[in-house]
């Protein structure tokens, strides 16, 4: 590819010249392409533009800033990205005293699923949640964390489909063993 491009640039200008000046007869009767200085200059301009374009493409777009944590999180140990809000009709929780029995909160906001995933991977360990697993299946991001006797499953989707800027986050917190952390098993 590079050799083809260099040959094209080297010969730039020859085929676009007028028929009158295009070929000059050489002593042996063959014809050669004219090397007019203006056409070489155009080739050089084209080459410089191409180099700038290639370097610009390789450097990539500016990386988006990481999401910040909202000060409106519903639980002190489960962060919520700034700009996201709870969808009350899709959320539920059950608490006994200060213990969580079951939580399923749904948040929505604008952003990118991978940035939201990176947000939770960064901030959850700051609240003593231990990362267990994560994945992406057909655009649905999932993460699992554990802390003490609780597990936290986070699912990140685009409810409006591909190309939408709305991201939906479902946070589910429940006992890791399937029982209720709000009640202790009776001792025998």
What does the model show?
The C terminus is likely disordered. The chain folds into two domains: 58 residues, no CATH class; 91 residues, no CATH class. It starts with a helix and ends in a 13-residue tail after the last strand. It contains four helices and nine strands. With 188 residues, it is an alpha+beta fold. Strand 8 and strand 9 form a beta hairpin. Strands 3, 4, 5, 6, 7, 8 and 9 form a seven-stranded antiparallel beta sheet that branches. Strands 1-2 form a two-stranded antiparallel sheet. 25% of the residues lie in helices and 31% in strands.
Summary of the model, kept short:
With 188 residues, the protein is α+β, with helices and mostly antiparallel strands. The chain has four helices and nine strands; from the N terminus they run ααββαβββαββββ. Strands 3, 4, 5, 6, 7, 8 and 9 form a seven-stranded antiparallel β-sheet that branches. A two-stranded antiparallel ribbon has the order 1-2.
């Amino acid at each position: 590819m590079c050799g083809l491009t260099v040959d094209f640039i080297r010969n730039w200008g020859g085929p676009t010249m007028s028929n009158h000046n295009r070929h000059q007869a050489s002593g042996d009767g063959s014809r050669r392409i004219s090397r007019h200085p203006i056409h070489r200059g155009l080739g050089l301009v084209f080459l410089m533009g191409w180099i700038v374009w290639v370097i610009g493409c390789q450097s990539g777009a500016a990386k988006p800033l990481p999401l910040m944590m909202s000060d409106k999180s519903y639980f002190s140990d489960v962060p919520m990205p700034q700009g996201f809000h709870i969808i009350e009709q899709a959320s539920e929780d059950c608490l006994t005293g200060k213990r969580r029995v079951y939580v399923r909160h749904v948040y929505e906001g604008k952003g990118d699923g991978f940035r939201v995933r990176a947000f939770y991977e960064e901030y959850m360990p700051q609240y003593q949640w231990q990362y267990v697993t994560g994945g992406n299946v057909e655009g649905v991001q999932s993460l699992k964390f554990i802390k003490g006797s609780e597990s936290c499953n986070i699912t990140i989707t685009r409810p409006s489909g591909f190309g939408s800027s709305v991201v939906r986050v479902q946070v589910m917190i429940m006992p890791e063993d399937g029982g209720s952390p709000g009640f202790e098993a009776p001792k025998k």
